[in-house]
Amino acid sequence: MTLAILNARSPGTTVCPSEIARAITSYGSWRDAMPTVHAGVDALLAEGLVQLSWKGRLLTRRTGAYRISRPSQTA
């Protein structure tokens, strides 16, 4: 789902992990999906399919708040 949402966006945009959670769950239960989203993001990051950033700074791993983007973009 993460890659599908990113691919539907304009280049240079980022996605909040909560948006991914909302896309895979029913209304109101998206917070319960966050551990699944984080695990999926970790796997995509390890494969080099996404990059993470926060406030314009690239992150090498997922810690705290973060945004998701395509790896060819700069944060």
Q: What's the layout of helices and strands?
A:
Layout: H1 2-7, H2 17-24, H3 34-46, E1 51-54, E2 57-59, E3 67-69
Antiparallel strand pairs: 1-2, 1-3
CATH class: Mainly Alpha
Domain count: the total is: 1
Largest sheet entry: 3 strands, antiparallel
**SS element count, helices:** 3
Beta-strand residue percentage: 5-15%
Using only CA atoms, what is the Rg? 12 Å
What is the terminal separation in angstroms? 21 Å
* Residues in helix, %: 25-40%
Strand and helix order: HHHEEE
Structural class: alpha+beta
Average pLDDT score: 91
Q: Strand sequence of the main sheet, in spatial order? A: 2-1-3
CATH architect. name: Orthogonal Bundle
Please tally the β strands and state the result: 3
Shape, per Cα inertia axes: globular
CATH-defined fold name: Arc Repressor Mutant, subunit A
Q: Unreliable segments (pLDDT under 50, ≥5 consecutive)?
A: none
CATH superfamily: Winged helix-like DNA-binding domain superfamily/Winged helix DNA-binding domain
General description of the model:
It contains 3 helices and 3 strands. The radius of gyration is 12 Å and the shape is globular. With 75 residues, it is α+β, with helices and mostly antiparallel strands. A hairpin with a 2-residue loop joins strand 1 and strand 2. It is 36% helix and 13% strand. It has a single domain, classed as Arc Repressor Mutant, subunit A, CATH 1.10.10.10. A 3-stranded antiparallel β-sheet has the order 2-1-3, with helices on one face.
